[in-house]
Amino acid sequence: MRKILIVEDDISIGSMLKKFIESKDIEVEIAENGMKAKHISKKFFPDIILLDLKLPDIYGFDLIGDIKQYTKEIIIITAHGDIDDAVRATKMGVYDFFEKPIDFIKLGTSIENIYKMLDLKEKVENKKKNSNKIIGNSNAIRSLKLKIKKIAEKNISVLLLGESGTGKEVLARSIHNLSKRKKFVAVNCGAIPEELFESELFGYEKGSFTGADTAKPGKIEMADGGTLFLDEIGDLPKNMQVKLLRVLETKEVERIGSTKSKKVDIRIIAATNRKFDEMIKNGQFRDDLFFRISVIELIIPPLRERKEDIPELANYFVMNANEDLETNVKEISKEVLDSLVNYEWPGNIRELRNIIYAMVALSDGNILTCDMLPVKLKNINKNKEFLKIPLGLNLEEVEKIYIEETLKKIGNNKTQAAKMLGISKVTLFAKLKKWKEE
Ligand SMILES: Nc1ncnc2c1ncn2[C@@H]1O[C@H](COP(=O)(O)OP(=O)(O)OP(=O)(O)O)[C@@H](O)[C@H]1O
């Protein structure tokens, strides 16, 4: 059910507004002063707050900081509005501004527009949620899926390790979706300038520094009851590492400029593509924080080590691209699939996704063919070397020739050969020993 809170001390205007909005099938609550407005918004979580500026106990603008976090949009209604107020409202992110007497038709349109926008946002969110499906059936992915099912509901910190684009965020969101936690709040530590970290994570009170016009909760507080995903945690500055550790130990957070701390219940999922042991050795990352966040460590292997997932992923991205680009590609040609499987994917799944999207966008038929491949993939099959093996040999003899030729090609490096052949080093040694003894 849609919900609107009216903050208005004039009882007759309040009840007129209530009647008008209820006629649109929206649930309405009224608060006659600022204190009630804070109290009700915390429990009612209205989609929209209609806020009168002149209230008996507070000036409407000074209330916005306290109620903003409990609603999606604010509309201001005022008897004595001037240009300055309208400008201030826009700066504070208020959606619309109405002068009394209220033009109900215009107000109705404004409310409808907000709901149209919110519906669209929800659709995009849902789509995002669905895109958290973990595609792949390789041993590595199957085992990851099993593990996350086991740990999802337990309130333990998880550290995801893997190269860029391997799907760490997808995995983090899947863990969250399988848990009963409320919201998923993501922070990309690699994208925040150092001087903004503290306000981003901890929030601030109004007036705590120049430019802090309103109070703002930080990401930690916003994740209360939910999951806080700290992407690129290796980029967290040292002074923030100490502060984060304190939050995890005390389960309390304090906004900048506040003397009061607030209890928070968060589950941390962190991710990095950097090597923690080196960072700890160099003093770049605190080991006490590392132990706190890495109760469970999950390693996501690069795509080149689970090539059997490539066809399924490629088909999945063709389907997604069809939906997003309104195309109708039905198939990937065998040659294209061969090239995709033979490529090494330094950018992992993100790179695969981008290439498929580009190919779908370029195609004008219903099959993806080699001429649409980017140059780096076009000649990949041509560059492959082929080995002629005579017919009539038994499989073990074929295997022996193949392994010997592979070793020759890479300068007898047995570790690399085992990797290329997809067998363990022990197996490779055992085979070589057996053939030597024969
Ligand atoms: N197993 C998967 N199934 C389906 N799509 C996936 C999978 N893994 C990754 N993707 C897709 O690949 C892209 C990159 O994934 P994601 O952002 O999770 O990677 P990441 O490891 O967090 O990258 P970075 O380290 O750069 O932040 C996204 O578009 C995501 O939807």
TrEMBL record:
Domain of life, per lineage: Bacteria
4-aspartylphosphate modifications at: 52
Leader sequence segment: none
PROSITE patterns per the UniProt record, alphabetical: RESPONSE_REGULATORY, SIGMA54_INTERACT_1, SIGMA54_INTERACT_2, SIGMA54_INTERACT_3, SIGMA54_INTERACT_4
Residue ranges of domain Response regulatory in the record: 3-115
GO BP annotation list: phosphorelay signal transduction system; regulation of DNA-templated transcription
A GO term for molecular function: sequence-specific DNA binding
PANTHER family noted in UniProt: SIGMA L-DEPENDENT TRANSCRIPTIONAL REGULATOR YPLP-RELATED (PTHR32071:SF119), TRANSCRIPTIONAL REGULATORY PROTEIN (PTHR32071)
Protein name: Acetoacetate metabolism regulatory protein AtoC
Lineage of producing organism: Bacteria, Thermotogati, Thermotogota, Thermotogae, Petrotogales
